[in-house]
Specification:
Blueprint: H1 2-12, H2 17-39, H3 43-58, H4 61-70, H5 82-85
Helix pairs in contact: 1-4, 2-3
């Protein structure tokens, strides 16, 4: 287990922290925008915004690397909630306004 954690830590040292911070800030802005759209009854537009963002987020190199690094630790959850919260597949079965 310690070897896996060391591998994960070594992997994470190479990740561009600025890119992760930028993605987190963008996610916060999106959350506010989506909430406002939901509050206004604009469910379809809110859903589209969430899907568009999740697809963009999935292509972010630093977050792809973060996921790969976090998977090195057996049974470890992703290091930041962004990774799972905004997966494109998450928006297929429900509307973001219902979450």
């Amino acid at each position: 287990m310690m070897v896996q954690m060391q591998k994960m830590q070594d992997c994470m040292q190479k990740i561009d922290r600025n890119e992760i911070t930028a993605a987190e800030q963008l996610a916060k802005k999106l959350a506010a925008k989506v909430k406002a759209l939901c509050d206004q009854g604009e469910r379809d537009q809110a859903q589209e915004e969430a899907i568009t963002f999740s697809k963009k987020l999935a292509k972010t190199p630093a977050l792809q690397e973060l996921r790969r690094c976090s998977e090195m630790a057996t049974g470890a959850a992703p290091m930041i909630p962004l990774l799972d919260q905004y997966k494109p597949d998450n928006f297929i079965d429900y509307n973001v306004c219902d979450h």
